[in-house]
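Retro notes
What went well: the complex prediction finally ran end to end.
Inputs used:
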Amino acid sequence: ILNVEQSPQSLHVQEGDSTNFTCSFPSSNFYALHWYRWETAKSPEALFVMTLNGDEKKKGRISATLNTKEGYSYLYIKGSQPEDSATYLCAFNPRDSSYKLIFGSGTRLLVRP
Amino acid sequence: GAVVSQHPSRVICKSGTSVKIECRSLDFQATTMFWYRQFPKQSLMLMATSNEGSKATYEQGVEKDKFLINHASLTLSTLTVTSAHPEDSSFYICSGARGTGFSYEQYFGPGTRLTVT
């Protein structure tokens, strides 16, 4: 059974705070790790696809790191804004079924103005 | 680019009836489409994978006779929940993939909330 765990389940921060969440996944059988941002009533939006150990990706105030040897990825948001409020999902592609996405249950972020 | 639509966004049906959900890729050709289900407070779980013109591949524990998938073209896949029961009430979401490059990127629709009464 392949488990993808995300923590925390939910997070409330004040506007301007920086925050980070964790995604842990099986370190063996790794192909890729995806981060999605999912606002209510909208489609999940792809943020990053990460494939190499040590990868760091950045998009505006959001960045992510990847450690495939120990099986974790961090997502960072610098200077959170109310529009960052969403559920952040990570999803793991196993090497033996690289078309599959195995999702974590997400981290729900609420940024208070 | 890479927009996927789903219709309907919400549907309520009576127990024993069938419901069809459509998934369309609007600006790209989806060689593969995926159907996921999400129960409250749980992860998105893959139900099945379909390639255009082929039979769908179902994940373990998903009844293929209950969840009929048709991928008739490179831009349209449908999921029909046959003889729906209250336990089928869930959030169903599809995605399409172009299948290019090293990483298999999937583009998601906004989902369909199914309630079976």
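What we learned: Chain B touches chain A through 26 residues (CB under 8 Å).
What to try next: split runs per interface for comparison.
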